[in-house]
Structure formats: structure tokens, C-alpha cells
Amino acid sequence: MGFFEHYCRTIFTRYGSKVKYWLTFNEINSIFHAPFMSGGILTPAGELTEQDLYQAVHHELVASALAVKLGHELMPGARIGCMILGITTYPLTPDPDDIIAAMLKDRETMMFADIHARGRYPGYLLSYLKEHDIHIQMEPEDERILGHTVDFISFSYYSSNCATVHTDMGVSTGGNLAKGYKNPYLKASQWGWQIDPKGLRYTLNKLYDRYQLPLFIVENGLGAVDDLVTLENGEKTVLDDYRIDYLRQHLLQVREAIREGVEVMGYTSWGCIDLISASTAEMKKRYGYIYVDRNDDGTGTLERYRKKSFGWYQKVIASNGAYLDEEVM
After folding, report:
1. Catalytic residue, candidates 27, 73, 141, 303
2. Please, are residues 249 and 242 in contact by the beta-carbon 8 Å criterion?
3. pTM passes above 0.85
């Protein structure tokens, strides 16, 4: 913990006069889905016990709260938030058992936001730990440190999925490390991530109703195979109307959430420029507004070209969202 505190102190001191918004850990709850990538846990996931996993979770949560405490001390006026992997889970059917299954799945995400926002372990988590004979080793100061709560909650949002006890009825799916069951009412991306703009509106309302804290959408986007084409004027680009439609539909739902009273601090998409996908380690799964000439086998010039979505998003920003009312084809 001392090393992390030293790291935070160093960057807060160096950049505190320039940076006013901070996130402690990226997608902190993804430690449940990718223990090594998210939590630096060397034990193979299949060999990791719940005892060890929840102990690691505790250390990460204390470190996050310590960063909040230190940031507030060193940077008066700065706002420090948490960042969770936004997994919106619906019950697959109206069966009450599916409702409960969705609730339990949802708690795997909400426990992190609960602790960040409220400064203590929620009752349902304490009950789970007791029932599963998991004993968290806490240092004397841990509970006090956890009391340093965040100023806002940020999250990533790409897709939603369903939970069910009727596994014979459901078809497995995934999205951004999370697993679940397909929603028969939704379409999916080329990688099977279900596209659900209204799920973002639902998530914003759910989080704001629960915490009454400002919200920041810090990841949202569409991974797709893009084809570089040459226009009549010789310009190279990608005609990614599918990405424009994805982003437009999601931003329209953000607007609806704001109209419903949700305090949305901001929105940043994933991402500005093509890069290697974290979830699949592929270059061909592209998210950016800027095309990078690089292939999965390492070939390519690394030349960069603006996609159609580049100009579209530029107009959305310049108009403060008014351009969303224009359908682009």
C-alpha cells in the first residue's frame, strides 16, 4: 500500500495544478473477470480461491479510498471518482427466480460503487462473505480509510446481457469481459456484444437514483471491422455509418437521461484512434475515429486516416449535441 500511496502522491503533486478530474482504478470490478489483467494477480484464474480474490478486492478498494483521501488533501477543488465496468443485466424472463438471478449478478458490480460512494461494505456483501466462509483480513485503519468517498461515479458501457436460472432456454453471450445470456430483442456487434442504447439510459438512471452523485460515461463505442476506401478525390477514409449510428443512438439516450434529471458530468467514447483491442488482442477490432494502417500480423504503414465518424463527432461536439438530431447517411 505504501508504494501505491507514493505513486499517487507523486502524480498528484506533479499534475494537480493541471488535472482536475481523477479516477482511481480503471474498471475496478473487472478483477472478477480478469484477475491478472485487472488486479495483477499471478495465480491462474482457475486456481484462485474466493478467499484470495476477495482479499485482493479489499486491498484494491482500500488503495482506491486512500487515493481519494490523498487527492483531496493535496488538490483542494479536484474531483476524484471511481470507475466501474458497467454491466447492465436484465432478467431473461419474468420468473421471480430470474429477477433474483439478475439482482445477484448486478451486485457483483454495484458492491464496488456502493463501497466507493458510501464508505463501507454493504450488508448483502457482508452476508455473502459470512455464508461462504470468507474472512477478510483488515488492517486497523482500513475501515476509516474506506470512509473517504468519491465525488462522482464513472463507468464504461458497451452492451447489456441477461441472467436466468433457465439455462436450457438461454444462449450464452458476452461483452467487455462479462458473461451472460442473449437478449432476444437486441442486435449484436460482429463480436457478439449486444447493442442496447436504452440500456445506457437505464444504467444512468439506476446509478443516479441509488447514489445521487454526478455520473461520467468514460467508455462507450463499437468495435468493428473497418474497410479503408479511396474516394473520388483521392482521399482515403472509412465509411463507418454503423459506428455513427451506434454512437448517435447512445448519445440520444444520454440526452433522455439528462432530461429525466440525471446529472451527467461528461461523456468520452472509446476511443479516438484505432489500437489493439484489450478483450481480443486484435487490431482488426477497431473502435476509433481515426484509422491506423496496421494489421493483426504486424504489417502496415501506420499511416492514419480520418473516418467518416471523425467529422460527424466533431460536429456533435461543436454543436454541444444539437447535431445529434441530424441523421447522417
Report:
1. 27
2. no
3. yes
